[in-house]
Amino acid sequence: MNAESLQLLLTTEMPYGKYQGRRIADLPGNYLNWFAREGFPPGKLGQLLALMHEIDHNGLSSLLDPLRRANRKIPIY
Predict the structure, then answer these.
(1) Residues in Cβ contact with 1 at an 8 Å cutoff, skipping those fewer than 6 apart
(2) Has residue 76 got a pLDDT over 70?
(3) What is the DSSP string of 10-74?
(4) Name one Pfam family in it (predicted).
(5) CB neighbours (10 Å) of residue 54?
(6) So where are the chain's domains?
(7) CB-based contact 37:50 (threshold 8 Å)
(8) What is the dihedral of CA 74, 25, 29, 14, to 10 degrees?
(9) pTM for the whole structure
């Protein structure tokens, strides 16, 4: 796990399925658990889903909060 991977969890969208268009970091735990049981897809997407599953499964989702705050757009007045 590295900072780039954590950032990708917040910016990469699920490309297909029930949660198509939802960011990987925002996928529900039961969906991530399903992938863990059935098998993660190959490649970068599978790696990100596996990482998010580990984070979610271990109750560490709050680790992404500082990155979420940093990604918010600062309003221009």
Answers:
(1) 51
(2) no
(3) HHPBP-SSTTTTSBGGGS-HHHHHHHHHH-PPSHHHHHHHHHHHHHHHTT-GGGGHHHHHHHSPP
(4) QSregVF_b
(5) 13
(6) 3-70
(7) no
(8) 120
(9) 0.87
How many CA atoms within 13 Å lie on the side-chain side of 18? 8
What is the band of 18 on the pLDDT scale with cuts at 50, 70, 90?
very high
The residue to which tokens 């039961």 are assigned: 30
Whole-number Cα distances in Å, 46 to 19, 20, 51, 64: 15, 15, 9, 19
25-70 per-position pLDDT tens digit = 999 999 999 999 999 999 999 999 999 999 999 998 988 888 888 8
Rounded distance, CA 29 to CA 7, Å?
19
For residue 30, with 0-12 CB atoms within 10 Å meaning exposed, 13-18 middle and 19 or more buried, which class applies? exposed
